[in-house]
Amino acid sequence: MLAVMESLFRDVRYALVTLRRTPGLTLTVLVTLAIGVGATTAVFTVVHGVLLEPLPYPDSGQLIRLWEEHPGGQSPAGNRWLSLRTRLTWRDRSLTIEDAGAYGSYDYLVRQPDFEPSRLHGATVSPSVFRLLRVTPAIGRFFVEGEDAAGAAPAVVLSDRLWRDRFAAATAAIGSTVEIDGKLRTIVGIARPDLAFPNPRALFWIPAVIPADADQPNRTVVFTTLGRLRGGATPEQAEAEGTAAARSIPRPPSTDFFFGRGAAVVVRARPLVYDMTLAVRPAILVLGSAVALVLLIACANIANLLLSRGAARQRELMIRAALGSSRTRLLRQLLTESLVLSAAGGVAGLALAWALVRLLPLTAPARFPRLESIALDGTTLLFGVTASVAAAVLSGLIPALRNTRVDLFEAFRGGEGSVSASATGRHSRRLRFGLLIIEAGFAVVLAVGASLLAHSFLRLTRVDAGYDPDHVEVMRVQLPEGEALEVRSHEFITRLLERIRVTPGVTSAGASNMLPLLPMTAVTGVTLPAAVGGGKPTSGRVLSYVVTPGYAEAMQLRLKEGRFFDERDTASGERAAIVNEEFVRQFLAGPRAIGLRLGPLYEGEYAAETEIIGVVGDVLKDGNDAARQPEMYFVHGSRTHRISGFPTFVVRRSAAQSELGATLRRLVRETDSGTAIDSVTPLRTLVSASWAQPRFAASVVSGFAVLAISLAGIGLYGALSYSVSQRRRELGVRAALGASRGVLVRLVLREGVSVTAAGVALGIVAAILLTRLMTTLLFGTSPLDALSFSLGPALLLIVGIAASLVPAMRAASIDPARILRGE
């Protein structure tokens, strides 16, 4: 054993000596390896932290997300709910789930002595949720059965962070009260610091209250639902059992409002970690595939460099073989050198991975799931070490085998079997250029993928969302709950808009109950007279905007016909309505909608004769990639519609007015000091944030593609430069025999371009097969988009020509006289 270790140490020392003799090549290999290993380790860290790492709860693999759907129907805003009726029926007789509970997260107005009113993010949970998660409080208790019933004593559990920030970590906080959305709640417990459900932004938890009339025959109550599988049960078994339970009970017509009209109800069950990462899973898998290609390109590049290096050491290897070194001994020495390179490159790669992971929170989308779980740990470090060793073996084995194939008889004769001949002969050139073709092919796949994502992103940004976000400030406020909230809200909105509209630089302003790209969505069911549809549906769901005069002007909605609201509409005994083009398409039959009377529209106190006064373009409420939905706009202040409690203001400023946020905050405080300001944000910022995930995916894959093309170009340049150096005598003889500079340039260029073209052809075939897997990431772009399949290969061809040009010019500058003199 000692002898083996001494031999290994000698090999390592000799490897260090030989590597120092070629500092340029050694540095190139180290940088290439560091880039490949660093990028691969960083992306694996993301994959591990987001997709593979278990949730921080005991037996978290048994936690599942439950919802029901009517296949073919569509829920509002793509929500996935489980009805209370299904949940209770199923839970009481289930053999597959232990229990189920409701949860959700929202922003709340929190008022507390010695603190300004503020909106904080909290969660609503059923008492069973804490049991399902199998977590315990740090102090006090969690909710008990019955605290989710209507009329139960209001309670709240604080997060460790809020407890320390607002109560100085005092145990006396238990039993005290805090006002949340106008209701005093008693603090019953403090959670442990690691509890982050349903997301890390939750600062407190309140019971998810079951409405008192939830058991009425025509009432449908829905929740986002968490469940836990029993031991041995699978999500598929839970789906079958839940579907049977849902179909065993009557389903009132109101369920169609939440789940859409479709086929018979089906219950779905998915692992919670899978559900939390569903939106980013395709993008992360594409990034993982992209960085794997980068690592393979780096390995091919290193293999080419080591082949060239082995050829330069031909005399050394021949002498060592003549002195008795076996091929195995030479092979071990070359592999040891590769492992030494891998160790140094791996350390540099891990340092690069650490830096990239640290930068991720600054570049990832704001709502990137499980971002807090992404960190270098033992698993990811082991992966990085394995990747560097694997890269060394992959890139070093073929050159080592090739460079140690020595026939001594032929070697001393200088024949085809010598190291020199084998390194510069036909077979070695084929091997080197074969590796270059593979590099180019991988680079084309990445370039095509990046082009597809970039093209898709550009299409997304060019969609007309139905409004103009430039020079618009969005302000969300919340008035305190209490008696006469509707009256107080109306007075606040009226007075604040009056003051905003006379502010210098403001061109128009309005308020609404909801706004595009913000989480609040108001959906209502409508019933229309049969005559207006001419056979089209007479009932359905619509997005229901309540807006003040001036809102449409501030948003610059696309008026197609008719007019916007004005003050006379607030005093009319009838209900004025503006509809969008999708509403007209789905519900109306005639060519002209203006003046069309829609009847009472609703029942009870909201019944009023409704007349369409305007038609606007479709507003994409949930982003540019969202489906168009029918919309109706009603004027705030009319008899049947008021914005109450939580208005959102939109203020359009002139292009010269760059700062308005501080002024708006001051006006709110002066108008009603009890109102909490949730945020003041440019609408353009909200639009940009809605593009964050596709922009992130396109940027990262584009970066990998640029890196891959650069590596391919560097590899081609190095291979051709080496080829020219080995063919100096041949090229000199050609020049002496009359070959012009142009002929010599074309000779080398032809070699480089043919290799690049072969790689492009291989890459296009591979891309055709692989880009179909990117369909879910593309918007308005085919996986076989002709433009994307042209840009990437064209760029690589340009890089290939540029990489070939310098060696070609060097070949043309060879002096035949010096070559013939043997200089």
First-to-last CA distance = 50 Å
Mean pLDDT: 84
Query: What spatial form do the alpha-carbon principal axes imply?
Result: globular
**Which residue ranges are poorly predicted, with pLDDT under 50 across at least 5 consecutive positions?**
408-424
Task: Indicate the percent of residues in helices.
Answer: 40-55%
Major sheet:
7 strands, mixed
Report the structural category: alpha+beta
Beta-strand content bin = 15-25%
What is the tally of beta strands? 22
Rounded Rg:
35 Å
* Overall tally of structural domains: 4
Helix tally?
27
Helix and strand arrangement:
Layout: H1 2-21, H2 23-52, E1 63-69, E2 82-83, H3 84-91, E3 97-112, E4 115-125, H4 127-133, E5 139-140, E6 155-158, H5 160-167, E7 177-180, E8 183-190, E9 204-207, E10 222-229, H6 235-247, H7 255-259, E11 266-271, H8 272-276, H9 281-312, H10 314-322, H11 327-363, H12 378-403, H13 408-413, H14 419-424, H15 426-461, E12 472-478, H16 485-501, E13 506-512, E14 523-527, H17 530-533, E15 539-547, H18 551-555, E16 559-562, H19 568-571, E17 575-580, H20 581-587, E18 597-599, E19 610-616, E20 631-635, E21 648-653, H21 661-671, E22 676-682, H22 683-690, H23 692-726, H24 728-736, H25 741-770, H26 786-812, H27 816-820
Parallel strand pairs: 4-9, 6-8, 15-20, 17-19
Antiparallel strand pairs: 1-10, 1-11, 2-10, 3-4, 3-7, 3-10, 5-8, 6-9, 7-8, 12-21, 12-22, 13-21, 14-15, 16-19, 17-20, 18-19
Helix pairs in contact: 1-11, 2-9, 2-11, 2-12, 3-6, 9-12, 9-15, 9-23, 11-12, 15-23, 15-25, 15-26, 16-21, 23-26, 25-26
